[in-house]
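lol forgot to send this yesterday, sorry. struct tokens for the thing we talked abt
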């Protein structure tokens, strides 16, 4: 759908709803307190995403919260600042629905959320949420194996003014660019972009204001997680293992999903270096719920089991892994 058409459709629907609303005397005044209450609930969704990730329920809750923010536009009068904040909030909530769908490998749904989030972000004028949506789009296309579109989407995010104003946004854009270079088998581009991402992170002022979604996940651990992903796909397993250990040592306690993903990738890096026992022990540390309910983790563990069978068929280690994987399924 054309972006202008979608923006016009959302605006027209909002106007129609307002015109159809029955007259009930003086309209309610919508204020920043209403926006803040929505943001508090958004924080709960983000926390749930970091614990579980990719679940359909998280996607649905985020989408419903976006609709609630839009409904507030028609619930009464409001200043332009409040209306812009409501559009920005709705865009942020919809982009979280998009991310949950990406994390759960439901790419068709993710694209639908992306289109609506982009339209809402345009109406809000909020640079941070525009960055988030286009950066998510780059990650989505990378996971789909479409690097040209991943670069194009991530470039939109990186070219926004906010990346020149705040080095932390620049760092995230560069780190995700490096991950796309890795998926494209470009070693030089990967190394250069990660060096630039690290430099930008070191220049960022921790005291600067940033949205809750940014504060909740992007730090040195996430940069190392992206480096792990890139070097793993490049076949540079010792470097991948280095970044995995550094990521795990720095991950904040609430990043449960990220720990499961990083642990699984670490197991792959160790197995590729021939360290069968250590790799198996690492993979067995992944919690049962992540191993069976998180789409990306489950897929990576299936691939790990196949690689282990090819590397160490008929061994005690292989038998131990098979039994452990069966226990996961029973626990689920």
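and heres what i got for the seq, position by position
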């Amino acid at each position: 759908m054309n972006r202008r058409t979608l923006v016009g459709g959302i605006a027209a629907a909002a106007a129609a709803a307002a015109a159809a609303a029955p007259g009930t005397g003086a309209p309610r005044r919508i204020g920043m307190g209403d926006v803040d209450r929505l943001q508090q609930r958004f924080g709960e969704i983000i926390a749930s995403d970091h614990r579980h990730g990719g679940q359909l329920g998280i996607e649905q809750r985020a989408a419903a919260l976006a609709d609630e923010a839009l409904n507030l536009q028609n619930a009464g009068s409001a200043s332009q600042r409040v209306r812009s904040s409501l559009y920005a909030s709705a865009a942020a909530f919809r982009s979280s629905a998009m991310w949950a769908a990406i994390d759960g490998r439901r790419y068709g749904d993710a694209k639908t959320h992306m289109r609506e989030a982009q339209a809402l972000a345009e109406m809000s004028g909020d640079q941070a949420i525009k960055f988030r949506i286009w950066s998510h789009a780059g990650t989505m296309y990378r996971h789909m194996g479409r690097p040209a579109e991943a670069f194009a989407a991530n470039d939109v995010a990186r070219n926004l003014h906010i990346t020149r104003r705040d080095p932390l946004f620049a760092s995230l854009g560069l780190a995700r660019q490096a991950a796309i270079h890795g998926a494209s088998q470009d070693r030089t581009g990967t190394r250069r972009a990660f060096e630039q991402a690290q430099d930008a992170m070191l220049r960022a002022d921790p005291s600067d204001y940033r949205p809750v979604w940014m504060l909740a996940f992007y730090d040195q651990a996430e940069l190392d997680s992206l480096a792990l992903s890139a070097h793993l796909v490049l076949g540079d397993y010792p470097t991948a293992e280095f970044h995995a250990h550094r990521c795990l040592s720095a991950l904040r306690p609430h990043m449960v999903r990220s720990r499961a993903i990083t642990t699984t990738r670490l197991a792959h890096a160790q197995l590729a270096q021939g360290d069968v026992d250590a790799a198996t022990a690492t993979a067995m540390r992944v919690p049962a719920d992540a191993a069976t309910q998180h789409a990306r983790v489950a897929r990576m563990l299936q691939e790990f089991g196949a690689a282990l069978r090819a590397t160490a068929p008929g061994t005690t280690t292989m038998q131990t892994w098979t039994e452990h994987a069966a226990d996961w399924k029973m626990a689920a």
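The chain has 18 helices and two strands. anyway ping me if u want another try
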